[in-house]
Amino acid sequence: MSTHHHHEIPNLRTLLGSRRGGGTRGRGRGRGPPGSSHEGNEAARDNAVRNTDQDAAGSRVSCVKLGYLLDPYAQFFAIQPSTRRLPLLNRGTYVRTSAIDLLVDRFMTIAPDAPKQIVSLGAGTDTRFFRLRDKYPEATIIYHEIDFPANTTAKLNSIQRHAQLYSKLRTTPPSSPLALESMASSYHSPTYNIHALDLRTLAIFEDGQLPSLPNLDPSTPTLILSEMCLVYLQASVVSKILSAFLDRYVPAPTPISLVLYEPILPNDAFGRTMISNLSTRDIHLPTLATYPKLADERLRLKSQGFSNGFKAADTDFIWREWVSEDEKERVAGLEMLDELEELELLLRHYCIAWGWRDGGEGGLFTTAWKDTRQQEEG
Amino acid sequence: MSSGGSDLDKAIAQLRACRPIPENQVREVCYKARELLIEEGNVVTVDAPVTICGDIHGQFHDLMELFRVGGDVPDTNYLFMGDFVDRGFYSLESFLLLLCLKVRYPDRITLIRGNHESRQITTVYGFYDECLRKYGSANVWRHCCEVFDYLALGALVIGASTTLTPTDGPPAPTNTTQLAPLDSEIEIETLNAANEIMYRYARDSSQASNSQQPSTQSPSASSPTIPTPSNIGPAGTSATSSSSGSPGTPGGAILCVHGGLSPLIDTIDKIRLLDRKQEVPHEGAMCDLLWSDPDEIDGWGLSPRGAGFLFGADIVKCFNYKNDLSLIARAHQLVMEGFKEMFESSIVTVWSAPNYCYRCGNVAAILELEEDGSNAGFVRRSNGERGAGAGGWILGSNVGPNTSNRHSSPGAGNGNGNGNANRLGALTDSVPQRRRDGPGRRYRVFEAAPQDSRGMPAKKPVADYFL
C-alpha cells in the first residue's frame, strides 16, 4: 500500500509525546520537555496529517493509473489530483501490496466456506476490505481496522461520500449512505469495523480490562496486518499489543497470524541514511533497531507466540521469487525503469515477516502458507 | 553574452553559486555549445591526463565537492560520462555549469551523453519539471535537450600511463592493508577526500583482488618511482614493462561510454558511423551504448531496464582485444563504493553522485588517469591542445619510448599515429595476444557535500521511502 503510513506517523508520534513535543514535520522544531505544547501543535499536526495522507492516497492512485495495481477504490480517498510517481516507487508499492495480497489470498482461499477475520492495524486509507469484498463475494469476512480517530473519521467521510464504497457495506439494495453521525469516527457491522483507537491503549491495560473491539470474534481464524504500523512503537509496547490479541482477543486454540511489512537493515549505509533522513522529519522507527535482520524478525514472531511458523523475506526476494515471470514481464513493461540498483537497495531494506499459531487441529495457516517461500539467508 | 569572455565568466560564477542564469543567456550558451559539439565526433579523442567522472544527476553541491576533490576546471581535465540531469534538485545548475565550462574551456572538459540526456527520460525523472519550476516555461528544457542531441556518445582516452606516480599522502585511518611500496609499479591507488591513501596496489600485487592481472612479475619491475626520462610517446613506454617483461608494451586506450556495449557494435569505428544527432532511440546501437550494463553472464542478455542489454566478461574482453583497449570506463549503475572494476579490470563503473538521491548512503568516486611517462601526475598540462586522431594507442605503433618534455602536448606523439581506422582494420586479422595492462588508476572517493554547505534549509531534500 503506497505510503498510507503517512497519516499514521504524526499520530503515532503523539504517543511519544511524553518524550517529544510532536513538532511539525521538517520545521526543525526543537524537542520539548515532557508533555510540552501538546495541544498547541495539534492543528499543525493535523494539517500535516491531512497533507501526507492525501499525498499517500495520490501515490496509490498513480500506481493504479499506470496499471501496477487493480484498485478501483483508491481514487475515492484521494482528493488532490495525483501526480505520477517515479517508477522506482511504483514498483516498490506494487511489490509490497502484491506480497500482502498473496498471503491474504492464501488465507482467504483455505477452507473458503469458513469465516475469516482480518485485523488491520493503522489501516489508514487502505482499501483492502473493499477489494476483498469484490474478490470473495461469497466469503464470510469480519474485517477490522484500527486507527486514530482523525484517520478513521476522514475515512468514514470518504466512504459516506461515495456510493461505490458504502454500497459495499450493504448486503441488500437499495443502497444508501450509512446511518452515521456527521463526524463519526467508528463504524461497526458484522462484516466491516472501523475502530477509532490509539493502539497503545491495548498495551496499557495489562491486567485490567482491554478496550472493547466490537464484533471481534475470539473464535474465528484471524490474520493481523501491520503495514508500517507497529514499527513506530517501542518494542515492549508492540509485544504487549500482540499479546493482547494472542491471549485475550483471539485466545488459543483459535488460529491467529501476523503479517508485518516494515524496514530492516538499519546498520548499513542505506539504512543509516534512512534513519537519519527520517529523523529530520521527526519520524522514528524504534523496533527497527530491535529487529534489524530477517532472523530477528523470525525469532521475534516465534517468541511472541506465533509458534507454528515464523518466516521472513525481504521485498527484493519477494519480487524475484513470488512474482511469476509473466507478471514480472507485465510489470516491467509498464514503465521504463532506470533506477534498478536503487530499487534493489530499497527493496532489500523492507521485509514481509509472517508468523502463525494454528492452535487446534487442521493447521489452517500451516496449510495456507505451506508453499509460500521465505528467504533462507539473512 | 557576446563572444564569451567576461559574460561567460559571469555566468559561470553565477552558476557556481547555484543560481540559475537568465533564459536568454541559457539560449546563447546552448547555441555556442552546439556549435562546439557538432564538430566533435561520436567518439571524442581525449588525451591523458584526465579525470573521468560518472553520473552527477543534478546533485550540484556534490559536483562542487567533486571539483574540490579532483581539482577545478581548467586545472584538471575532466571527462563526464553523462547523466548530468534528473533525480537531484539542481539538474539545471549542474548541467549549465558543465556546459558553460565546456564553452569556456573546450579542451579541458569533455561531456558525453547519458541515457538521461533525453527528452523522454527527463520528463519522467525531474529535469523537465525543474525547468518549468525555475523558468515558468519549457523553453530552457528545450534548449538543453537540443544540446543533448549533440553530445558525443563516447570518448577514447589515449596516452594514459600504465603506472601511477604514487601520491604523497598519509595512509587513511581506515587503511588496514599494506600499501604497495613506493618503488613498485603502482596500478591502483584509492584516496579519500582528505587525500589520504585508502589503499595502493602494485601491478604485480596479489592484493589487487579483482584487478589482478594474469601476468607474472616483471624482472625489470624495479621501475623508478620518478621515471627518467619522461615519455610522451603515445601509450608505449618503458615504464610499463610489468606483464611480460617486454619493454615497450603499450597500454591500450580507454573507451568511455555511459552505459556499455551493444551487440550491434563490434568496433569503435562503428560507433563513429552512427547518426547521433537525435533523441535517444528506444533501441539500436546508440540506445545500447547509453543503456547497457555489464553482468556476470556469458554473452548477451536482456536488460531488466527495458532498454539496452546485459553483456558478460567474454564480450568485454573480446571487444577490448579487437579494439586494442585496455579498459572500458562507464557509469550508469549506482555502486555503493563509488567505483567497481569487473572482469579482471577490463571494465570499470564510475559513479560520482554521493548519497544518490539523498537516500542511498553511497560514496562517489572519480577516476584519474595519468599522462604516460609523467613523473608527476599532479603537474597538469598548461594548454588544451590535443592530438586529435593520434593513433598512439594502437598496438605495435610504437617501439621505443619517445623522449620529450612532459609539458609538451601529447600531440607531439602524432608521428606515431597512423589513423585509428587503418590500424583497427589491420587489427582484426592479427593473432590474439595477451590482454593489455590497464592504465594506472587513481580513484578519489568522496562523500556527499556537508548538509550545511548546501545553504537550502527551505528546500531540504526529502527522500521517499516505502513507509
TrEMBL record, chain A:
It comes from the Eukaryota. S-adenosyl-L-methionine binds at residues 96, 122, 198-199, 227. Its EC number is 2.1.1.233. Pfam families: LCM (PF04072). Residues 1-54 are annotated as: Disordered. Keywords: Methyltransferase, S-adenosyl-L-methionine, Transferase. The keyword Nucleotide-binding does not apply. One of its GO terms (molecular function) is protein C-terminal leucine carboxyl O-methyltransferase activity. One of its GO terms (biological process) is methylation. Methylates the carboxyl group of the C-terminal leucine residue of protein phosphatase 2A catalytic subunits to form alpha-leucine ester residues. Belongs to the methyltransferase superfamily. LCMT family. This is Leucine carboxyl methyltransferase 1. It comes from Lojkania enalia.
From TrEMBL, chain B:
Residues 203-248, 391-442 are annotated as: Disordered. It is an enzyme of class 3 (hydrolase). Residues 205-247 have a biased composition (Low complexity). Transmembrane segments: none annotated. PROSITE patterns: SER_THR_PHOSPHATASE. Residues 112-117 form the Serine/threonine specific protein phosphatases domain. Pfam families: Metallophos. Residues 399-408 have a biased composition (Polar residues). The keyword Cytoplasm does not apply. Gene3D superfamilies: 3.60.21.10. It catalyses: O-phospho-L-threonyl-[protein] + H2O = L-threonyl-[protein] + phosphate. Keywords: Hydrolase, Manganese, Metal-binding. SUPFAM superfamilies: Metallo-dependent phosphatases (SSF56300). Its EC number is 3.1.3.16. One of its GO terms (molecular function) is metal ion binding. InterPro entries: Calcineurin-like_PHP, Metallo-depent_PP-like, PPA2-like, Ser/Thr-sp_prot-phosphatase. Belongs to the PPP phosphatase family. This is Serine/threonine-protein phosphatase.
